Amino acid sequence: ATGEPPFLRPINHISYLASLASPVDKMFIWAAVVGIAVYVVVQWVLSIVAAFTVDDGSCDAATTAVLAASSAPDATVHGPSLPLVRALEACAVEDDEGRCADQMRKIVAAGHLSYSTLIDAPETLLRCSPGFAGSNGALWTRFTVQYNLYAGSVIAMGTDEQRTELLASQRSGELGCFAFTEKGAGVLSGAGVETTAHYDSIDDSFVIHSPTPSSTKNWISQGLYAERAVILADLELNGESIGPHLFWAAIADRKGDGIPTPRKGVTVGSLPAKTALLGLDNAEITFQHFRVPRSALLGRFGTVEGASSDNDKTVVYTSKLPAGVSRILDLLISRLLTGRIVLSEATLAHVMSRVRHSWKYATARELWRGRHPKGRMMAEMPLIRGAFRDYGRTTSILQAFIAHTRENVADAIRGQVFSNDLIEATCMCKFLGTGFGVDCISAIRKVMGARAMQADSMLGAESFIPNATSAAEGDNTVMELKIVQDIVRGRTAQFPLKLMARIAADPRGRIAIVAYITSFGRAMVLQKKAMQDGQLLRAIAWSRTHMRVIDVWMAQTVASPEKRAWLESYERVILQFPVRTQV
Q1: CA distance 577 to 538
Q2: d(C-alpha 567, C-alpha 572), whole Å
């Protein structure tokens, strides 16, 4: 209307729209309007209150206890996982690849953790990761390669006969590697497989071959010192591709204490020198018509069977996939899921040990006293105390989420079925644990100043382990895109309403919900153009991740309001939009 005050126009427009709607629609329209208005007003009031709130960095008793706690294996690992962790942590850091490999051989042969445990109690292996408190990242990486990727793949994908052969090999301390990633695929590990395994009916064998330079297996940890390998290759049968499969074969022979000699048809080379994890060899492996017996195919879920006589050399592929699994590729990729859990949890354990070590120093370091009889301790300075409080709490919250996911993964291993929801959670664990690990170490270095340059600060070269784990078992950016891809393809719910309802009671939950709905809604409007906006896709992945992390923490702190409040620190440190490259 002419002369209508500007502040009344939105209300009059809404009233006009409501007049055109049915009574029920009117109710929903006005409920939505009132809800939005109340939310805006509440947020405005909270922002005013926050503006006059002083944060002196004070810590509650629970936070102080976490910062002062021990990161030693006996305090972080329990039950049958402990002997192996003690053995790993007891070894001296070796920058020589050969001596570090020998350390792994002795641990394997000692039987601190039997390969049979991977069958009977898979959670035992996964529960070792919280014990990584020291600086021996090279040996711990060998551990996850040997037990999880190599032996774990044979256990998960191999027949009973192959399992028995693996169990017998442990006594000798034989090392293995996981020849999975190829140069052409890069960080899209497993997404592209050029290596072929052609079945030769004449001598009933497979011929594994790297047909192009890009098919070379790359960044293969422990590849130089391994006698055996689990090899990912495209199975070719009767001139037809059956798809990627795993093959288990001896690739080298070892005499004495030297580097194993590659077998005919296998070429193993070393990658350029690294800046960290110097005791870990990373190889590139090429196959030139490498012949392996038919029994090399890990055949629990798919075998090549049939006659092989002078009159009938026809063989057929027989699929034995478990219920709920439509393709063997899903089972193969699931081998990376356990690796992501192990790496992420070990990274956060490593990071927390650095946080605690620096906090201990800060509590004992007296600052300039001037004319006073005693100076303030470094840990009493508000900015320093607040940084340790916020990063210590956030690390604990992420550790809780990864531990929760780890137990779900152990259950999935027994059933051989990984739900899309669990796959999403493991992807989240990967970029949360390793990515935050990099940022947390960096923040502590800044807080500690010149102290970080001292050798005993534990913030030197050894603390770059999170940088290495960020790129292992799937690059973190790829993990973020995987989450968005699964939403778009309908593998996971676009709007997890039950999840949203559970976390809506907490302010941080509401922040994550609004961020997710806003970013995903914008992507729906942009359609294909959204795929060109990396920051938008990252916001979708991270906001969805925050919802799940907050949900787990709220569930675990129902009886502890003090710890529930730690989400305030989580918001300050990591619940930020747009998502920053470094927090």
Answers
A1: 10
A2: 9
CB 340 within 8 A of CB 426: yes
**Maximum distance among all Cα pairs of the chain, rounded to whole angstroms:** 101
Q: Which residues pair with 436 in a beta bridge?
A: none
Rounded CA separation 125/128 (Å)? 6
Q: What is the pLDDT of residue 471?
A: 82
Contacts 24+ apart (CB under 8 A), 509-516: 509/547, 509/550, 509/551, 509/554, 511/546, 511/571, 511/575, 512/543, 512/546, 512/547, 512/550, 512/575, 513/543, 513/547, 515/539, 515/543, 515/546, 515/577, 516/540, 516/543, 516/544, 516/547
Report how far residue 118's alpha carbon sits from residue 424's, in angstroms, rounded to the nearest whole number.
23
- Contact between residue 137 and residue 468 where contact means Cβ atoms under 8 Å apart: yes
Strands (E), 425-504: none
Q: Which token pair is 182?
A: 């190829």
Report the C-alpha dihedral over residues 399, 403, 405, 411, rounded to 10 degrees.
170
Measured CA to CA, the distance from residue 300 to residue 321 in angstroms comes to 8
- The strand pair at 217-221 and 282-287 is best described as antiparallel
In degrees to the nearest 10, what's the CA dihedral of 272, 273, 274, 279?
120
What pLDDT score was predicted for residue 514? 95
Q: Which residue has the tokens 């029920």?
A: 24
pLDDT of residue 7: 52
For residue 188, what pLDDT is reported?
Answer: 63
Q: What contacts 31, CB < 8 A, 6 or more positions away?
A: none
Per the DSSP assignment, residues forming a β-bridge with 282 are 221
pLDDT value for 190: 60
Cβ 116 vs Cβ 167: under 8 Å: yes
Between the CA of residue 97 and those of 167, 270, 271, what are the distances in Å?
Answer: 25, 11, 13
Distances (CA, A) of 474 to 45, 187, 344, 429, 527: 43, 6, 12, 12, 26
Provide the token pair at 550: 């907050």
CA angle 70, 71, 75 (to 5 degrees): 70
Distance CA 198, CA 212 (A): 15
Count of C-beta atoms within a 10 Å radius of residue 507: 14
- 279 to 222, 260, 361: CA distances (angstroms): 10, 17, 29
> What is the rounded distance in angstroms from the CA atom of residue 210 to the CA atom of residue 201?
20
Q: Which two tokens stand for residue 208?
A: 């594994």
d(CA 526, CA 316): 47
Nearest C-alpha neighbor of 386 from the set 546, 573, 565: 573
Tokens representing residue 249 in the block: 């074969």
Using 50 as the pLDDT threshold, list the residues of the chain that sit under it: 1
Tokens 């030769």: give the residue: 200
d(CA 458, CA 437): 14
